[in-house]
Amino acid sequence: MKKKLLFMLALVVTLLVGWGATSTTAQAATDNSLARVQKKGTLVMGTSPDYPPYEFQATVHGKSKIVGMDVAVGQKIAKGLGVKLVVKSMSFDSLLVALQTGKVDMVISGMNPTPARKKNVDFTHLYYQGGYSIVVNKSEKGLYKDKDSFKGKTIGAQTGSTMYNESKKQTTDTKVKGMTSVSDLILALQSHKLAGVAMEKPSAQAYVANNKQLAMIPSHFNLSASDTSAAVAFKKGSTSLVTAANKSVDQIRKQDLVNKDYLPAAGKYLKTNTVNTSMWHYWKAFLTGVKYTLIITVCSVFFGFILGVLLSLARMAKGGVIKTALRWLATAYVEFIRGTPMMVQVMFVYFGLGLIVNLPALTSGIIAISLNSGAYIAEYIRGGINSVDDGQTEAARSLGLTNTATLRYVVLPQALKNIWPSLGNEFITLIKDSSIVSIIGVSELIFQSNIVRSDTYRGVAPIAVIMVLYFIMTFTASRILNYFERRMQHD
């Protein structure tokens, strides 16, 4: 099942990349990228804020904020263009897709300008050049010297990163495991699911400095300059925008701003994060996660129910060419939605439809989950309608009720009573499934827990908190649903 999911994700990304690549020549001929950014007055930066000191979350004046040296680079570029910087957070392996589909104007996330990436996006000049290290548990530091010491073991790296690809190429008899979040990799390391985590040296230093249970060893990977350097990525064909950004990047390199200003400033935020790492200190972040989780769930159930009613009626339509066509379309929709993973559907709505309509991440998440829920609710309702005795319909018609009135006042109320437990189960399931939208940067509970883990360098505590919060929400919802179910049984 996991291999199938990864294959479908790769297929969606490939189709989207191919779609964007077909228009590259036309974009190059009519490049208005700089004028477009200056006209709207904002420069949207995509990043994955789980990679200190490049980019990470910090609590500033009581509010969670994305900080780090990459954010400082973004601010420098935006200032040079005379526009305001807007930072958009999402998983690392979604960044280039977001760039190609117009969700962000640029990507700054410690990204290496490899030849493979240059085929699909444009890069600025290098703004930083570092190296790579491997983070291990301090108690096991004596067991490992470099990448060649992990034979028979498992090391981890961020999915889509240079280190993930090179770890697979340059290690022998070593299993390489990829995860989208570095904080997840560190948690896996500390729980001994991994023997080491390969990452850039500044990030490794940040994690080791703030976690006494970790240690750092040299990697000794054979890497080119492009593999150990960071540059800003722009959409292919954005020549004017890249040229303008290069002026700021060249100033950063000439004045050595990364080492003199940006990294020391990031270090101060890292120290601030570890002053108070109690979960209560981050109650606002968890509350925000609960709020968005409930918004997504309630909206998705509401629109999913409406869609489900329409689909179920269409599937049960009989007679006539139009009704037959509707029945086939509804059946095809239900089967297709139920046969594809929700994660793929969320990505397609956000990135795929984003080529046509620029939908916000929250809206995209609600639409995708509503479309998915509607397919399942349609089957519940269809089953409920079929469970109503035919004699009820015949009695209603004998009293002079029309087909529509019979369905509305006789059949559907009884069907709703029969399927109420299934609808309740769908609501409970959606509370938990809403976590999927974290991959596109929606600030629900999973997303917020990743922020807290990145802030505090604590892996287990935030997970324990959100487990309790999910249980409270689902248990409360189930009690409320059971109350109404008992009321229906008494009617």
From TrEMBL:
PANTHER family noted in UniProt: GLUTAMINE TRANSPORT SYSTEM PERMEASE PROTEIN GLNP (PTHR30614:SF20), MEMBRANE COMPONENT OF AMINO ACID ABC TRANSPORTER (PTHR30614)
Residue spans crossing the bilayer: 292-314, 348-371, 460-481
Keyword Membrane attached: yes
Family membership noted in the UniProt record: Belongs to the binding-protein-dependent transport system permease family. HisMQ subfamily.
Pfam family, one: BPD_transp_1
Entry protein name: ABC transporter permease
Signal peptide (UniProt feature, chain positions): 1-28
Membrane topology per record: Multi-pass membrane protein
Subcellular location: Cell membrane
Ranges for domain ABC transmembrane type-1: 290-478
Family matches, as Gene3D superfamilies: MetI-like (1.10.3720.10), Periplasmic binding protein-like II (3.40.190.10)
Keyword vocabulary terms for this entry: Amino-acid transport, Cell membrane, Membrane, Signal, Transmembrane, Transmembrane helix, Transport
Organism whose genome encodes this protein: Levilactobacillus zymae
Primary site of residence: membrane
